[in-house]
Amino acid sequence: MEFFTTAWWSALAAIILIDLVLAGDNAIVIALAARNLPSTLKKRAIVWGTVGAIVVRAAMTVGVVWLLRVPGLMLAGGIGLLWIAYKLLAEPSEDKDHGVPATSFWGAMKTIVIADALMGVDNVLGVAGAAHGDFILVIIGLVVSVPIVVFGSTVVLKLVERFPLIIHAGAAVLAWTAARMIIHEPMLDEIFDEAALRWLTYAAAIAGVLAAGHWAATRVSHRPSINA
Q: pLDDT at position 205, please?
């Protein structure tokens, strides 16, 4: 594709739109994973979590042709993302006995990178498709996604600190994303041919994650202290 032609600009606009739409999920998981860290580490977690996520996504983009041939990839990614959404709810915001954050910096990094690798499948496929094989456009798409995710994560984190209920909303968004990945698994096309079953899957994923996360968090909060 020739540079700065109408087709080139159209492809770039499509890539930026894809990043704007799909980067929201990444911003949410980064903010939720970093919410338990001390204030001095939150910004570092957002920046390095984004960098790690972009590196993973770049590697996935390079291997997108191979990824397209992996059967069950979307299904596995969706199931993995459901687990991460559950864990983000199940972990208490802080250790009630000691008053210190319950999540380590490297623990947050692991959650961020793994979650982005799982969620990044649809982003990578979308960007690669919009780029029509133009590697320069793919790189531009990755660069554009960095400030979107960093800014979005910062905003979500501030909202979470003021309105803890957003944690549940964020987990619901991740569950929705997971259900979307499962529904779009090519191996399951025949199963999800009916619209009613697709909506039932969305509802079951969201309700299941919220219920399981609430149950686990309640168990942790009522667990007796070792020092009691």
A: 94
* Total-model pTM: 0.65
CA distance 122 to 42: 27
Q: What is the mean pLDDT of residues 119-132?
A: 66
- Integer CA distances (angstroms), 203 to 3, 55, 199, in order: 44, 32, 6
Q: Are 83 and 177 a contacting pair, CB within 8 Å?
A: no
Rg (CA), the chain: 19
Tokens standing for 221? 């909060």
Whether 120 and 93 have beta carbons less than 8 Å apart is answered as no
Query: 63: which 2 tokens?
Result: 């291997």
Considering only CA atoms, which of 111, 119, 120 is closest in space to residue 141? 120
With beta carbons less than 8 A apart as the criterion, state whether 150 and 86 touch: no
Residue 38: pLDDT over 50: yes
105 residue type, one letter: F
Distance (Å, whole) CA 58 – CA 55:
5
Tell me the C-alpha distance between 142 and 153, whole Å. 16
Judged against a pLDDT cut of 60, whether residue 63 lies above it is answered with: yes
C-alpha dihedral (129, 23, 171, 112), degrees to nearest 10: 100
